[in-house]
Amino acid sequence: MLRITANIAIDESELDEQFVRSSGPGGQHVNKAATACQLRFDAMGSTSLPQPVKRRLQRMAGSRLTADGEIVIDAREHRSQKQNRHEARRRLADLLARAARPPKRRRKTKPTLASRRRRLKNKRHRGELKRLRRRVKRGE
């Protein structure tokens, strides 16, 4: 089980991991070993996630979400399969935890009198500076 929150956990059977060859420097090791981890999770088809979490996840996942509703996480920072696997799972858990947290409702507020006065004072000051930069006419 991959624990996300107190009431959300993903079963291991819902995760699909593949190990592929990683790119970049590393000599013989990188050419022979499949250390990069590609983690797939069918988020939209998952029974573990409530519907509001799925909706938020769709907005947050961005390019990691496929057209089929799968989240694909690619981890290739480390030289070992074990570390990349752990990193991919950590990133998935982090993404799901952020989606599980409902956004705070925005409270409408009015600007204070002092802040309105500061804004207008600053506006007058900027206007005065710009007026002083203008070309001077002979009569002034």
Topology:
Blueprint: E1 2-3, E2 9-10, E3 15-20, H1 28-32, E4 36-42, H2 51-61, E5 70-75, H3 81-100, H4 113-133
Antiparallel strand pairs: 1-2, 3-4, 4-5
Helix pairs in contact: 2-3
**Strand-residue fraction?**
15-25%
**Rg, please?**
27 Å
Shape: elongated
Main sheet properties: 3 strands, antiparallel
Whole-number average pLDDT? 81
**Unreliable parts:** none
Reported CATH architecture: 2-Layer Sandwich
**CATH first level: which class?**
Alpha Beta
Number of helices: 4
Order of helices and strands: EEEHEHEHH
Residues in helices, as a percent range: 40-55%
Strand numbers in spatial order across the main sheet:
3-4-5
Number of strands: 5
**Through-space gap between termini:** 80 Å
- Specify the structural class: alpha+beta
Give a short summary of the structure.
With 140 residues, this protein is α+β, with helices and mostly antiparallel strands.
Description:
This protein is α+β, with helices and mostly antiparallel strands. The chain has one domain: Double Stranded RNA Binding Domain (2-Layer Sandwich), CATH 3.30.160. 41% of the residues lie in helices and 16% in strands. It is built from four helices and five strands. It has helices at residues 28-32, 51-61, 81-100, 113-133; strands at residues 2-3, 9-10, 15-20, 36-42, 70-75. The strands form two sheets. The protein has a three-stranded antiparallel sheet, covered by helices on one side. Strands 1-2 form a two-stranded antiparallel sheet. The radius of gyration is 27 Å and the shape is elongated. The termini are far apart.
